[in-house]
């Protein structure tokens, strides 16, 4: 049975767990450190536990809320000049319609966290930083280094564009209803332009996905449909390695070599 919080019944389909611990709320707001005039965007404000202190610090906030009932409550609670509320799905929202630079924050629903992070990565050039609360396991994967068990597709795809830093853990008891997992606060800061130069992003994404889709196989076998022995030789990457041993720079080098390879043309 779903828990009821402030007269609102938490909806499982939206992955709703509402932050209630005032000490944790203060700690998160301190980590974000909002300043007057900054353009803050909160994804999934819910009952407004973070919304109110963020508005008090910055003066104004844009929030994206999918739940109609919660959106109605937020409109009643905050005037339009303090809160611009967008009722809809953040996964489908065009963040380019908001003035840059953006500081994006939120307690992200765990069931859509990965696709939402990938969606936001597409707007990295418009973002100053992002501070999210996510499942601890997801944060560990986001920040993982090559060679670790947690290092994978999520690590590479995010670290291509962001410096990822875990801030602190949040216990299950800080929420209502109480989740079965520990959460963590994570900060993502866009990397300087030019840190990694990817020739063709779809090729890069395809290489990373294929490599980690069969992570127990060597790169030679996992990427046999994409990369020839000559490609490995040209890039200096050992085809006998597994995907988790490659750095982001290695994946960039491999993908760029593939995208620059001219397809053979058949004779007339």
From TrEMBL:
InterPro entries: KsgA/Erm (IPR001737), rRNA_Ade_diMease-like_C (IPR023165), rRNA_Ade_Mease_Trfase_CS (IPR020596), rRNA_Ade_methylase_Trfase_N (IPR020598), rRNA_adenine_dimethylase (IPR011530), SAM-dependent_MTases_sf (IPR029063). It is found in: Cytoplasm. It catalyses: adenosine(1518)/adenosine(1519) in 16S rRNA + 4 S-adenosyl-L-methionine = N(6)-dimethyladenosine(1518)/N(6)-dimethyladenosine(1519) in 16S rRNA + 4 S-adenosyl-L-homocysteine + 4 H(+). Residues 24-192 form the Ribosomal RNA adenine methylase transferase N-terminal domain. GO terms for cellular component: cytosol. Keywords: Cytoplasm, Methyltransferase, RNA-binding, rRNA processing, S-adenosyl-L-methionine, Transferase. Belongs to the class I-like SAM-binding methyltransferase superfamily. rRNA adenine N(6)-methyltransferase family. RsmA subfamily. This is Ribosomal RNA small subunit methyltransferase A. It comes from Tepidiphilus thermophilus.
């Amino acid at each position: 049975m779903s828990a009821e919080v402030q007269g609102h019944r938490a909806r499982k389909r939206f992955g709703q767990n509402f932050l209630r611990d005032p000490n944790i709320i203060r700690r998160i707001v301190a980590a974000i450190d909002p300043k007057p005039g900054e353009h803050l965007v909160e994804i999934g404000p819910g009952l407004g536990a973070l919304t109110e202190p963020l508005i008090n610090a910055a003066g104004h906030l844009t929030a994206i809320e999918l739940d109609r009932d919660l959106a109605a409550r937020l409109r009643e609670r905050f005037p339009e000049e303090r809160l611009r509320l967008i009722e809809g799905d953040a996964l489908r929202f065009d963040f380019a319609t908001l003035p840059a630079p953006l500081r994006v924050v939120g307690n992200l629903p765990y069931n859509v966290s990965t696709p939402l992070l990938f969606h936001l990565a597409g707007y990295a050039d418009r973002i100053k930083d992002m501070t999210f609360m996510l499942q601890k396991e997801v944060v560990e994967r986001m920040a993982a280094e090559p060679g670790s068990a947690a290092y994978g597709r999520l690590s590479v795809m995010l670290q291509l564009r962001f410096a990822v830093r875990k801030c602190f853990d949040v216990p299950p008891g800080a929420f209502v209803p109480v989740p079965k997992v520990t959460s963590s606060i994570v900060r993502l800061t866009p990397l300087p332009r030019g840190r990694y130069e990817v020739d063709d992003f779809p090729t890069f994404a395809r290489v990373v996905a294929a490599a980690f889709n069969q992570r127990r196989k060597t790169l030679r076998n996992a990427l046999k449909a994409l990369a020839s022995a000559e490609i490995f030789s040209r890039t200096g990457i050992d085809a006998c390695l597994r995907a988790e041993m490659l750095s982001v720079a290695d994946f960039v080098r491999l993908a760029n070599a593939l995208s620059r390879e001219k397809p053979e043309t058949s004779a007339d």
